[in-house]
Amino acid sequence: MEDIWRQLEAELDRAKSLPEIEQVRIKYLGRKGVITVLAKNTDFGKLSAEEKKSFGQRLNSLKSRAEEAVRAAAERASREAVPQDGATGGPDLSLPGTDRRLGAMHPISLVQRELEDIFQGMGFRVLTGYEVETEYYNFDALNIPPDHPARDMQDTFWLEDGRLLRTHTSANQVRALEQFGAPIRAIFPGRCFRNEAMDASHENTFYQLEGLLVDRDISVAHLIGVMKTLLSAVFHKEVTVRLRPGFFPFVEPGFELDVQCLICGGVGCATCKRSGWIELIPCGLVHPRVLEFGRVDTSAFSGFAFGLGLTRLAMMKFGIPDIRLFNSGDIRFCEQFPVSM
Ligand code: PHE
Fold first, then answer.
1. Strands 302-309 and 205-215, how do they pair?
2. CA 241 to CA 252: how far, in whole Å?
3. What is the distance between the alpha carbons of residues 7 and 73, in angstroms, rounded to a whole number?
4. Confidence at residue 341, expressed as pLDDT on a 0 to 100 scale
5. pLDDT, tens digit, 9 for 90 and up, residues 277-291
6. Cα(270) to centroid of ligand 1, in Å?
7. Is 251 near ligand 1, meaning CB less than 6 Å away?
8. 157 Cα: distance to centroid of ligand 1 (angstroms)
9. Using CA atoms, how far apart are residues 116 and 122, in angstroms rounded to an integer?
10. Is the terminal CB of the chain with fewer CB neighbours within 10 Å at N or C?
């Protein structure tokens, strides 16, 4: 047994790689291995009780010493297979990483997620409606009857069955009021479609994030408060806003909310077309007709709505100069934006 042990030790010493060590293991401990066969071929019947005991003990001890030696050798070999950093003896951290392409979040998704988080913090629920809408929810229920000129401003893609691709996320307003009633706080992020002539700032497919809040005693002050909270969170600083009158049939009064240009601080630059202001969020108090379409008691409730251009906001936040990049499907475009903001 001592001979077997010395031989095994010597062979393990010579075996440097894991396959070589495995060969040694098989040679000694495998089903037909030297140690296994030794145990099998011993005729214990011929031994006295005492001999049996001592032989058995030594055999077991040889077997477990052999197993332990093989295990230790394998461990050493796999450790040495990792290139060593001479100074510390640890793995060499200066080796290049494996280049795994993990993909990247689209800037619209990044901005949308951030906004959802901010609004959820203010008690808004996130709802998504339908990209294919009925004429009723996209127009009529928003106080835009068939002959209204406001329809011309949203050049619409019509389906053959009379439905349409929603031209704005406002189409969710009356759907949400019907479903949840008042009071309600909800945002509706989503894709919208208009038959635009495409250029650097016009796309036929773009994203909006609609907001709707209906409760008791809601005024323009609440609207401004929520808008300022939102913009400060997105741009990580206090922003100055102003309201200009704006017309939308589904709000009264209606506004265009401008932010003071974040590039030049209001002095005037190319981005804000020298005006110091950037038009960002159309909004207003929900028109009573819309509340009625949503079966809300207008003697008790009022509210505000806004239609933030997600695409526009992403362009401002990341300094993206051309809207056509968003739907280009070019992975190099997406890879430029930081995931944590
Ligand atoms: N839906 C309008 C648009 O797309 C924006 C808007 C939303 C205006 C909500 C007022 C209130 O142009």
1. antiparallel
2. 19
3. 15
4. 42
5. 988 999 999 999 999
6. 26
7. yes
8. 18
9. 10
10. C
Instruction: List the beta bridge partners of residue 187.
Output: 126, 211
Residue-wise DSSP of 220-265:
HHHHHHHHHHHHHHHHTS---EEEEE---TTEEEEEEEEEE-TTTT
Structure tokens at 152: 């011309």
What residues pair up with 191 in beta bridges, in sequence order? 207
Average pLDDT, the chain: 90
Is residue 316 located within the same domain as residue 170?
yes
Name the one residue in this structure whose structure tokens are 């526009």.
312
Q: Is 248 in the pocket of ligand 1 (CB under 6 A)?
A: yes
Residues 231 and 243: their CA atoms lie apart, in Å, by 14
Compute the distance from residue 170 Cα to the ligand 1 centre, in Å. 6
For the record, the structure tokens of 106 come out as 């689209």
Looking at residues 38-54, what average pLDDT do you find? Answer: 85
Our answer on whether the CB atom of 188 is closer than 6 Å to any ligand 1 atom is: no
Token pair 């994203």 in the structure block, residue: 207
Q: Which positions ≥6 away from 156 have C-beta within 8 Å?
A: 138, 164, 165, 167, 194, 195
Q: What is the reported pTM?
A: 0.70
Same domain as 163, residue 64: no
Tens digits of residue pLDDT in 301-310: 999 999 999 9
Instruction: Say if residue 65 is in the same domain as residue 201.
Output: no
Backbone angles phi, psi at 175, to 5 degrees: -55, -45
Residue 302 and residue 208 in one domain: yes
Q: Is residue 49 part of a domain?
A: yes
| Ligand 1 pocket mutation, candidates 247, 248, 312, criterion most atoms within 8 A of CB | 248
**Does 94 map to a domain?**
no
CA of 26 to the centre of ligand 1 (A): 77
Q: What's the pLDDT score for residue 210?
A: 97
